[in-house]
Amino acid sequence: MVTYNSTTGYQEVTTSSLSYAYTSEAEIKRVISTSGFDLRVDDLADTLDAITDIVEEATDMVNFYCGLHYNESDLETSPLVRRWTTWVACYLLSQRRGNPAIFADRMGEVLALLEEVSRHDRIIPRLPTREDLTPAMSNVHIDDKFRTHKIRVHPTISTGGTYGKQDLSPRFPFEWL
Fold first, then answer.
1. Longest C-alpha distance within the chain, in Å?
2. Which of 18, 49, 118, 169 is the most buried (most CB within 10 A)?
3. Is 21 within 8 Å of 59 (Cβ atoms)?
4. Residues 62, 75: contact at Cβ < 8 Å?
5. What's the CA angle centered on 72, arms 95 and 20, to 5 degrees?
6. 7: phi > 0 → left, psi -120 to 50 → alpha, else beta; which?
């Protein structure tokens, strides 16, 4: 949402905060220490806005890779996801004033793991996915009564259930019920 500030004459963009945050200031301090944290934000009068931006950016980055396959509420409760997000936030905090990033190696490892999760090469342990990953087999036949979508599934002799994108066979009435 864009609002006009009549005092300054600038348009200000306001964003809504995230529903879920996967890291916190305390978790960041646990990794880089309280004194290390203070050294990186000592030029700010109010650190809350900077830390909120970093936490939101780190959370958005994890959501970019994992959001399609996992619910945000589940990601928030995962200790592994919280650790990954904390490392991303520490990397972003270490870059804040144009300093060379301290956690570049760890950030590379985390991004590689997140890319594997995004491609479904790996799954996050102890988290349910949005998809049903059980193996399935569909017994099909060609039905020439249809001009398009001629391949039809026999649900009673198929395994793994049906999903909304399958064209069910009308050959045997009521077998899809």
1. 74
2. 169
3. yes
4. yes
5. 60
6. alpha
pLDDT digits (tens, 9 = 90+) for 47-82: 898 999 999 999 999 999 999 999 999 999 999 999
- Dist. CA 67–CA 152, nearest whole Å: 32
Residue 113 contacts residue 121 (beta carbons within 8 Å): no
CA 25 to chain centre: 20
3-state DSSP assignment of residue 69:
coil
Q: Residue 4 phi/psi, 5° resolution?
A: -100, 125
Taking each helix axis from N to C end, the angle separating 34-41 and 25-32, rounded to the nearest 10 degrees, works out to 110
pLDDT tens digit string along 90-134? 999 999 888 887 899 999 999 999 999 999 999 999 999 988 777
Q: Which residues of 60-82 are buried (b: 16+ CB within 10 A; e: fewer)?
A: ebbbebbeebbebebbbebeebb
Tokens of 157: 């002799």
